[in-house]
């Protein structure tokens, strides 16, 4: 059977790395995007090579149209199609709302939301032609319920969920499924600023008594890739911390 082709943005570290790893192990041709962490991206490639699995690692700042376009063009030139797009690249912010600047707004919105918009647009042209596709956007519980001191981040993630729902309706007739995964706290570099005590408190207020691992998100991605009847949904993996 012909191999599926997937682009995973922000695959050098954390959740994206775990998603790229699991999809590659599953036999999918993975194009793992990174921006600044070239060394980490190489480590991922080498780890998979030890298991005779070859992935492409491509540097691109997906908050910039031309770079996102180049990433997508690489995939089409190399494999003629893209079956799966995982919009995972993102950055955090933590600041008093009254101290946020226009630069903060542009940085967070461009990296978290514009990047997903641009990638969906560039990739969906190919998916529409092929009448096949699966897009998964990584949002956040903060997009669902809002976070104090993370206002722009929360806006960017709520925007991603809006993008997911609208695109699911527009692209559904072309057999393209679009879903969001909205994680709670996951053990990655993004949370390295949290103290041990803060992590303990987070665990205590979470019904399942733990924070998540990147693999928890990758397993859900794996399920959504297989599934054929789920679209326009925001699936929140958060240990029961947020139940809506
Ligand atoms: P992370 O460990 O900080 O990794 C972020 C990844 O995004 C890195 O691979 C980074 O690449 C990449 N990236 C950032 N901006 C990029 C850009 N403009 N172009 C290309 N790549 C870019 O974060 P994480 O925790 O794995 O988060 C992954 C996603 O999950 C994010 O969208 C985040 O908002 C979301 N999320 C995380 C949590 C959590 O608790 N960790 C919770 C909810 C949602 P380089 O290092 O190569 O630049």
Q: Which bin fits the share of residues in helices?
A: 40-55%
Strand order across the largest sheet? 3-2-1-4-5-6-7
- Report low-confidence residues grouped into runs of 5 or more: none
Q: List the total number of helices.
A: 8
Q: What is the CATH H-level superfamily?
A: NAD(P)-binding Rossmann-like Domain
Strand content: 5-15%
CATH class assignment = Alpha Beta
Secondary structure tally: strands: 7
What is the count of structural domains? 1
CATH topology: Rossmann fold
Gross CATH architecture? 3-Layer(aba) Sandwich
- Rg of Cα set: 17 Å
Can you list the ligands bound to this structure? NADP nicotinamide-adenine-dinucleotide phosphate
State the end-to-end CA separation. 40 Å
Main β-sheet description: 7 strands, parallel
Taken from the alpha-carbon principal axes, the silhouette is globular
Mean pLDDT: 98
Q: SSE string, helix = H, strand = E?
A: EHEHEHEHEHHEHHE
Estimated structural class: alpha/beta
Topology:
Elements: E1 5-8, H1 14-25, E2 29-34, H2 38-49, E3 56-59, H3 65-79, E4 84-87, H4 102-130, E5 133-138, H5 141-145, H6 151-171, E6 176-183, H7 196-205, H8 214-226, E7 234-237
Helix pairs in contact: 1-8, 3-4, 4-6
Bound molecules: NADP nicotinamide-adenine-dinucleotide phosphate.
NADP nicotinamide-adenine-dinucleotide phosphate is lined by residues 9-10, 12-16, 33-37, 61-63, 88-91, 111, 115, 138, 140, 183, 185-186, 188-191.
Folded structure, characterized:
There is one protein chain. The protein has 244 residues and is of the alpha/beta class. The protein has one domain (5-235): Rossmann fold. 48% of the residues lie in helices and 15% in strands. The chain is built from eight helices and seven strands. The protein has helices spanning 14-25, 38-49, 65-79, 102-130, 141-145, 151-171, 196-205, 214-226; strands spanning 5-8, 29-34, 56-59, 84-87, 133-138, 176-183, 234-237. The protein has a seven-stranded parallel β-sheet, with helices on both faces. Strand 1, helix 1 (14-25) and strand 2 form a beta-alpha-beta unit. Helix 1 packs across helix 8, helix 3 (65-79) runs parallel beside helix 4 (102-130) and helix 4 (102-130) runs parallel beside helix 6 (151-171). The longest helix is centred in the middle third of the chain and has 29 residues, at 102-130. The mean pLDDT is 98. The structure holds NADP nicotinamide-adenine-dinucleotide phosphate (NAP).
């Amino acid at each position: 059977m012909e191999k599926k082709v997937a682009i995973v943005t922000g695959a050098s570290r954390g959740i994206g790395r775990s998603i790229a790893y699991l999809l590659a192990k599953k036999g999918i041709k993975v194009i793992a995007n990174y921006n600044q962490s070239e060394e980490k991206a190489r480590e991922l490639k080498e780890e998979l090579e030890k298991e005779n699995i070859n992935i492409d690692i491509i540097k691109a700042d997906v908050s910039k149209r031309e770079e996102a376009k180049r990433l997508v063009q690489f995939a089409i030139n190399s494999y003629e199609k893209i079956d799966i797009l995982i919009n995972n690249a993102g950055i955090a912010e933590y600041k008093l709302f009254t101290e946020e600047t226009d630069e903060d707004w542009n940085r967070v919105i461009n990296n978290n939301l514009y990047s997903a918009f641009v990638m969906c647009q560039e990739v969906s042209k190919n998916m529409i032609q092929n009448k096949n596709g699966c897009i998964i956007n990584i949002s956040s519980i903060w997009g669902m319920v809002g976070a104090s001191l993370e206002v722009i981040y929360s806006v960017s993630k709520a925007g991603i969920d809006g993008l997911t729902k609208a695109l699911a309706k527009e692209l559904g007739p072309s057999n393209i499924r679009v879903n969001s995964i909205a994680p709670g706290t996951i053990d990655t570099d993004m949370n390295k600023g949290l103290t041990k005590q803060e992590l303990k408190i987070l665990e205590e207020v979470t019904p399942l008594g733990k924070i998540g691992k990147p693999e928890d998100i990758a397993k859900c991605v794996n399920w959504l890739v297989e599934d054929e009847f789920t679209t326009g949904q925001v699936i929140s993996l958060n240990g029961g911390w947020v139940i809506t």
